[in-house]
Fold these 4 entries.
Entry 1:
Amino acid sequence: MKPCKIADMSRDRSKRRDDEYVLADPQLRAYDHGVGTLKVDGVLQGHLASVVGEIKFPSKSPWPWFVIVWTDGTKEPAFEDYGPGWHTVRELEAGVLDHYGPSIRRDHRCLFGRTIHSSQAGPARVFEFAWLSSDDAATKWRELGLEDSDF
């Protein structure tokens, strides 16, 4: 896959914005049921899995969704990316993910004895990111117990 390039603003300023990112693969095929590793200082922390849907407004384009699965098996809530900025895709293409560590989960008892579950994002962290091959991704997808409904 060719690396993505930030749009060249000198070509046509009327059609592009400074934060527009040109995708090397406009369909984001590698992101559909893709899985990559998340490491800190070379130590595996978890995996990032993705699927690609389609956003229809303001124009048709791919719509990647991501889920982080930590090494202990816990899954974070899904998050999305879209253009023209493609902030997550841009980071992944650069081999990093600037996100958060594992969420901190808390249980609170309310006045009527019910338990309320909440979570707070873990500390900010920059992960080293690398895609697995498509065969390894398919195997890891099953090992992690991922379902399309996770996204």
Entry 2:
Amino acid sequence: MINNKKVKLLAIAAVTVQVIGAVLNRMVIALNGGMPSIALTVPVGKWVPLYQGTKLAVLADVIRVGNLAFSMGDLFFIAGLIAEMILLWVAIPQGRKFLPLLVASVLGIFFFIAGPNNLTPTILCETAALLAVSGMYYSYRDDLRKRTAVTLLLIKVIAE
């Protein structure tokens, strides 16, 4: 069983990896007026084409996976997110039934945020993710309350 201190350290590490990814993406976006992408020839929404004058081109969307293009920042962010989901799975076994909803929601967020004018589906996926995490938390809290009540009852019975 994983203890609280290890859970906190792993959570801090996962969030740190996500922050690194977000910072890498923000740097290249700020320097180029949008995210340069190897998959584009004309600007589309928040993406701009990659060209010879692109600053920090190594951090742009240059990693091709099928028709998609990812950046180093995206990979860091996704790695941190996966670590957090694994951590939730390990740390809150009572909430495991909500993990599929969380995974589907996060995938939806990534899918819809990539396209222009997808605000409504993105907000719906973010709301579903929030509900999934809330469900995990409240499942954990209810289980903890039940265990505390049983423990107090046993202490009372033993004391008498």
Entry 3:
Amino acid sequence: MSAKTINGVVILNENLIDSGKWEDVMRYVVHEVIHVMQQEAGKVQGKVDKDKYLDDENEQEAFQAQIEYMDDHEPPEKIQLYLEQLLDHHNIKGPKRKEYIRELTKDI
């Protein structure tokens, strides 16, 4: 499941929409709406390299908003699982994992 924002337009993956899991759809929407606002404010300077994706301030802001949404609607175990999967997907290991988790959850 995935979503992306291009020139202020949010695109949701068909599998995400068809999943029937409202909370999952909405957490992606929250993340992408942050990107729409960032693009409108001129904060986006092009595509982020995959190896620097989670270091990008715009991505961190979008993930923080997404995780705040999750905190209001989902149990802590689901948030933890999501974070673990996110960090696995980006091949983040060792002490850096704890740093990313701390940064992404600092507002909850």
Entry 4:
Amino acid sequence: MIGLLILAVLYAYILLANFIVKKVYEKTQSKKKKYIALAIMILIPTWDVILGFPVYAFLCATQSGVKIYKTVDNVEGFYVGESESILIAYQFTDKDQSYHFIDYKDETNGKYYRSYWKDNNISKNCISYGEHKYGDYAEAFRHGRCVIREEIPESAVSQWDISNKFNNETTLIPNYLTKSTVKIMDKSTNKPLAELISYSYGEGWVAIAFSSVAQYSRWSTCTLKKSYQEMLSETLKPKQGNKNGNN
């Protein structure tokens, strides 16, 4: 029903545009003014596409991507912000295991913890896989390994902060062209070491209206040469040896 309504509105708009353009020409007898009227009627529903896509393509080509301002050698671990212990355990198994530890703030009690691998799962500080009976961490636990949860003071938390310093902002065309930035921060200076910048484009309000009816996304995002994980490993270069913190 909504789709038919949108089609009816578009059809009515085409009839209206044709009527207005004809009236302009009949009253002025000027082809120039006729074409101006035609251009205006075309731009009313499509200006965001005509303006937005070239700007989006330009920003993707010139402004998006990974920008590394400073690299750090021999990094053993980093801070990931608020999290749950079990999620930290799975982060070790699901992602790059080159780092020795992960620091985080427990979202339930507000305390700070450091987690690292241990080749012995009988410690009271081992993170249990709990209800997560399947997956890489559960398998590692069954084979005698575990990720330790060790409380630390806030002063001991790693200064390398990857806690999703994420920012979304609309630019030039609200709701249709969005800039997204993810940063790796140095907490001691509160300055970014690196950032990943990308742009998303909604392809105009007409396309979005149709996509909401057809239930598919019309949003496009810049294709990046490097991923966030590559930015992380190139910015915070892991310390070699004793990998996974076999303490």
